[in-house]
Amino acid sequence: MNKLEELRRIKQEISLGGGQKKIDSQHAKGKLTARERLNILFDENTFVEIDVFVSHRCTNFGMADVKATGDGVVSGYGTINGRLAYAYAQDFTVLGGSLGEYHAEKIVKAQQMALKMGCPIIGLNDSGGARIQEGVNALSGFGKIFYNNTISSGVIPQITAVFGACGGGASLVPSLSDFTFMTKEGAKLFVNSPNALAENNITKLDTSAADYVSENTANVDGVFETEEELLGMIRALVEVLPSCNLDDKEASANDNPNRIIPNLDSYKNDPRAVIQNIADDSLVLEMKKEYAGDVVTALIRMDGITVGCVGNQEDTITTAGAYKAEEFVDFCDAFNIPVLTLVNVTGFAATVEEEKTISKALAKLTNAYADATVPKVTVVMDKAYGTAYTVMNSKAIGADMVYAWPDAVIGTMDPEMAVKIMYEDELAAADDKLAFIKEKKAEYVAALSGAASAASRGYIDDIIEPDATRKRVIAAIQMLLSKEEMRPYKKHGTI
């Protein structure tokens, strides 16, 4: 056998990871292998594997006799819908995908190469955790990965998918990423195992399960029934996102930018429907749908321009909703993605528990909007009351363009409540209280709370026909693309 034939034989053997029996075991659990996932993620025949021959150097605890092809992780690059991306996929068939010294070094190299190339880095996690036989070498490996996650933050998109266990130190990687997705079955995300929590065990409450994590934490952007669906979501996301923070490419659009949407105002209480109607080809990538239902966050395209949308799904903002919106706006600003805010809000969630946390969350949201220098457009669809409106990208905190639908009500509080406070004595003496409230409410709205009143003071830029919302938002964003803002020098804010 010549060297070329030997090379082919070795590479063929390596492509089987831990061997056919391990592959069969993976399939029996309804899971794909690392290379199968990469083949689905990348365009056909574009994935190029690097560090194929890397293996561990550990000799402790019987590891000297353990063969570990690729050291339990497959890494490389290719194209996704024609766009360059780097990726690594932990191979559970090799040492349970455990992270050791050289396993980590392969991931770090992929991270560093993605940063140099200015392209997304995608991690496909399916691991038994740190390789205990390698001790501090494994811990150091985690640290290097965390460091590169941090350095890359705001520079290149970082996307993580969880297909198996992702616990302990490994759970930091999804939280250090921009987007994290899980499969409904099989994927686990946790710092401490459910069984390690006092008075709990996995049979009572599986705090690591995809459904629990997506509904109760801000750590997961979406949960999918199948691995194929999850990988399809990543492909769609990479197509929409800029490759890096310096990428200003726009996609071609087939949808008419001047498209009129009849009766759009019938969805004033449903921002998801509004977002879908104004998006190019009705394509919406919603993030964290199961978490903080009072706020909707989604990526769309409008005339080929990627736009981040934030909308009020409920009348009041919660702590979780404020943090969800803040994180999303920060991401959009980092990657020069214009932000569209759809407002219909009356106040803040009022409970004892909320009172402990909501002030800081609202400060974070205010800071995110005020600090963002990307194009910022706001549409007031219905109600916009008090400080809740102020923090939802009002003109006062830096919105570039603010529009309102004709029936929008903008003011300090519900006009009826304002009337009851201001005319308490007169209302008590009125013979027809309902008629009195109706009359004074109309006066209050006309003077201080209607869209026309806000427009007369420059707090909104125009009252627009709801049917023309897509047209007007696109025109505003296109006008704002050349926007520049000068800010005082600072290392970073402290809010």
Give a quick rundown of the structure.
The protein is an alpha/beta fold. It has two domains: 3-240, 2-enoyl-CoA Hydratase, Chain A, domain 1, CATH 3.90.226.10; 264-408 and 450-480, 2-enoyl-CoA Hydratase, Chain A, domain 1 (Alpha-Beta Complex).
Describe this structure in words.
It is a single chain. The N and C termini lie far apart (66 Å). The protein is of the alpha/beta class. The chain contains 17 helices and 19 strands. Helices cover 38% and strands 19% of the residues. The strands form four sheets. Strands 10, 11, 12, 14, 16, 17, 18 and 19 form an eight-stranded mixed beta sheet that branches. The mean pLDDT is 89. Strand 11 and strand 12 form a beta hairpin. It folds into two domains: 3-240, Alpha-Beta Complex (2-enoyl-CoA Hydratase, Chain A, domain 1), CATH 3.90.226; 264-408 and 450-480, 2-enoyl-CoA Hydratase, Chain A, domain 1. The protein has helices at 3-15, 20-28, 34-41, 101-117, 136-152, 172-176, 210-216, 227-240, 271-278, 319-334, 352-371, 386-391, 415-422, 424-429, 433-449, 451-456, 469-480; strands at residues 48-50, 73-80, 83-90, 121-125, 158-162, 165-167, 179-183, 188-190, 222-224, 285-287, 295-302, 305-312, 316-317, 339-345, 347-348, 376-385, 401-404, 409-411, 462-463.
